[in-house]
Amino acid sequence: MDESLSHYPPLPADDLSRNLSIAQIGQDASLPHIGLVGDTYTITVTGAETAGRFCVVDMHIPPGGGPPPHRHDFEETFILLEGQMEATFRGKTMIVKAGDTINIPANAPHRFHNVSSSATRLLCICSPAGQDEFFKEVGTPVATRTTSPPKLNEEEQAAFIKKVMALAPKYRTELLKEA
Q: Residue ranges of the Cupin type-2 domain (predicted)?
């Protein structure tokens, strides 16, 4: 072995308790589809599958959709597969289109919003994982990747906001005021 490399520790052994996972979004009925803030989020890779290293969420954002301004203490990467969206990062707004990838550093204020007339589809990778569990805890299960969540009346909306505000700190997330 090259002496100059001897100070690097060896790779750990293969962890045989972990298995390959595959998400076949059009065929796998077990994938959770979560309706949240008018969007539909399908969790394709959970934190449990990656030993907490990251999670992957396939996001369907209809026209006008997207979460309010927020920040969290984990990295978030978006890969736009279809459509375009408006992304606001630390107060600066830009248009991001299909084929683009953006990475939001931990703790940075941001939001994304579909200002187009067509649905946007993007993959969201959060590292470390946890956002997948947050979505499952605050969202509503829906039938498919593109099923809209149920419309909330004023009372249901108030209860939803109260629930999100109570759970956000548990998932290292802070909702911010509109700019």
A: 59-126
Q: What is the rounded average pLDDT of the residues 53-62?
A: 98
* C-alpha distances in Å from residue 40, one per residue of 89, 92, 96: 22, 26, 19
Query: What's the rounded Cα separation, in Å, for the pair 79 and 59?
Result: 10
pTM score, whole prediction: 0.91
DSSP sequence for 6-52: TTSPPPPPP-TT-------TTT-TTS-EEEETTEEEEEEE-GGGGTT
Q: Quick check: helix, strand or coil at residue 58?
A: strand
Distance CA 144, CA 173 (A): 26
Tokens of 162: 């109260």
Under the banding of pLDDT at 50, 70 and 90, the label for residue 64 is: very high
Domains within the chain, CATH numbers bracketed: 30-175 (2.60.120.10)
The rounded distance, in Å, linking the Cα atoms of 22 and 169 is 31
Q: Which residue has the tokens 């009346």?
A: 153
Q: Letter for the amino acid at 158? A: A
The rounded distance, in Å, linking the Cα atoms of 62 and 16 is 41
Token digits for 25? Answer: 């979004």
* CA distances to 45, 57, 89, 117, 171 from 83, in Å: 23, 17, 19, 9, 29
